Known about the structure:
Layout: H1 8-24, H2 33-47, H3 52-64, H4 68-81, H5 86-99, E1 103-115, E2 128-143, E3 146-159, E4 167-181, E5 184-197, E6 200-216, E7 219-232, E8 238-253, E9 260-275, E10 291-306, E11 309-326, E12 333-352, E13 355-366, E14 375-388, H6 395-399
Antiparallel strand pairs: 1-2, 1-14, 2-3, 3-4, 4-5, 5-6, 6-7, 7-8, 8-9, 9-10, 10-11, 11-12, 12-13, 13-14
Amino acid sequence: MNPGLYFSGLRRAALAITVLAGAFIVPATGGNAAADELDSLYSSVIRRPNDSELNLRFAQLAENAGKLRWALSAYERITLNDPNNIEARQGLQRIRRKLQPSTTLLTVQLGAQYESNPNYYIGPRRSELQMLGSAVLLDERAFNGMRWRTNALAAGVVHQHEDQLNYGILGGDTGPVLDAFAGWSFRPAIGGNVSYFDDRFYYGEGALSGTFESILQGMYRSVTVRGAYRSYGDFFPSQEGFYVEARGKLAVPGVIGPGSVAIISPWVLWSDISGVSSVVVPIVTELQPGAYMEWGGRFEIIRSLTSWMVAGLNISASQRDYRTDIVVATGDKRSDTIISPGASLTFPNLFAYQTDLRLDYRYITDRSNDATKRFNDHIVTASVITRFDPTAPPPWAIAGR
C-alpha cells in the first residue's frame, strides 16, 4: 500500500493532538539569548496560536536550535490555519524528513500460474503451468543528515514445457531523497539490471533516473524519468541501444467509499535498441527490444470488501509504433495495440501477520497490424506474499531479552 493512502480525518485528529500537546508542554531552555528569545516566542504562541507569522518565527528559531519536534508542531499549526503558506509547507516537509525513522522492508512473493499461450505468436501454442518468485527490498535511512533510499529486485519465472522462456532478473538503484519544492521530494538514482533468458545471459543495462514524489491530502503523486543503455548477449538477435521512459502515478483514496483507492499510472517509452525483435519475451515483465515509441496507461481500483478480503479490477492499454519493423504483407511499419484487463483478490494476513494470499487473472490481446504478430493470452496466478524487516531481530530473540 502506498504511504499516501490514509484518511484526512485521521490526519486532522493527529494534528489536533499535536497542537494540544504543544500548548501544554513548556520547553525547558538554557539562559543564552537564543533560548530566551525562544521562550518569549513560545509564550506569545500560547496566547496567539493562530498567528501564522508568529508561529513561523518560532518554528524557524526552534529548527535552528535543534528543537525539531517544537518546530514540527509550529509548522503544522501554520499549515492547518494557512494551507497555502509556502514557507510553512517547505519547513514541515524538511522537519518530517529529518525525523523520519529508518525503514527496511523486504517483500517476498512465491506462487504458481497457468498461462494459455506463453509463446504468443510463435508456435506451438499450448498452455502450461509455471512457477514464479520475487524478492523486493526497500531501504531508506539517514546518512550524515541526508535521506538515502535503495531499491533492489530479484525475480524469475520457470516454465513447465517452454523452458526456453525461463526468465530471471536481478537489479536495483540507489540515491538520496531531497527536498525539491513545497510538498514534493526529488530522488535522483543510479542503478542497473542483469537478466537471464533461455538458459543464458540475456542483457545488462545501466540507468539514471529522477523521481518527484508528493503526498497531498491523502493523495500520492509521483513522476519518474529514467534513461538506460542496454546491451544484449551475442546469442540474441537484439543488440544494444538506449531507451528513455517517463512514468507517472496518482493514487486517490476513498473514490468508491472507505477502504478504497483508485490508481492511475500513465507512461511514455522511447526505445532505440538495434537488431530485430523476433524473440518472444514476456510482455508482463519485460521491456520489448526494438526501435519504437510507446505510450499507454493502467487504471486500477482496489477496495476492502471485509477485513479479510480486498478486491481489485484493472485495465492497461498501450500503443507501440515501430520505426524500423516492416509488415511484409503491406509494407507498412509495424504498429501494436495491446489491451490487458485483469482482476485480483487478496486475503490479508491469511497465513500469518503480513503474509497474504493473492489471486490474479490477466488477459492480454495484441491487435497488431501485422497478422503474424497478433495473439491472445490468459494468465491465472496464485501466490503467497509476505513482508518483513530483515534487519529486525527474530521474535524469539526479543522474547529472550
